# Entry
Amino acid sequence: MDLTGVTTSISSVFVFVLLVLPGFFAVRRKIISSIHIDGFSTLLVNFLWPAMVIDAMTSSTLTQEILNTVLYSLAICLGGYFIAVIVSYIFVRIFKISPALEGISKFSIILNNTGFIGMPLVNAVFGAEGLIIASMAEIVCDCVIFTLGTLFMNGKGKLDIKSMLNPGFLSVIVGLILLFTQLPLPNIISSPISILGNATTPVAMFIIGAQLGELKIKKLICAKLPYVLTFIRLILIPAIVFLMLHFLFPNNSFANGILVIMFAMPSASCTAIFARQYNKDYGFATNCVMLSTVLSVFTLPLWLISAQII
# Structure
């Protein structure tokens, strides 16, 4: 075990927790409201996060090793989400989830917060090289969200392909094109992109803190089903991925560690957004997202440590 890496990982998570506090207290003290949080979220998803991705891609030099890592990461992510889909179906059958909550339950188990939390965390701990690997998880996650995710929520068997053309997904595609072609961006463009990208992590953590500040704690802790979903999302699925990578692909430790961390992310925040869009139980979906986000503060340090020993 690399003790230096473990110490760095734990320190990084502690810093993230501290960055959450201003948003939490800003809401509790009524300095900001839900309108402000929506505005910050729009800024993050449409500007800061895409800038971070493009900055990471353009800061890397394409080598055969990086190309192999990209292809390997894509393959593992496809396999990981396939496992998550199987687990979600088994869960629904065993616990006899009602049709009204079935789609949300599957969505909450399968789809993780790769972009909003995962990529800023990986960027902070592992740097640009790690962010490239994390971006592969983001690509696959976006594809699953707007294919299977849409099917789970609308129940009509129709895909929402147009929704895939969002700034986050497109930034990954643009970034990959720049990475593979090695086209240099002029400084007048790359400099502001880099500045915007550097703001991603603190803004993301502020928003998470603000969302936690909006929670009605009693309602959150009394619901039982979200705890089961959260256990599957934060513990079971990353554990399966960890064991698979540890025993089947032990020679890719750096990529494996990052991929495990990405699969250990809490439920995707768009779970609640999709639930509202398709007239599902929005309150239940919000509970699932918020509970997994809160508890990930305790589970992510453990998976960050595991990333050093895989």
Summary: DSSP finds 13 helices and no strands in the chain.
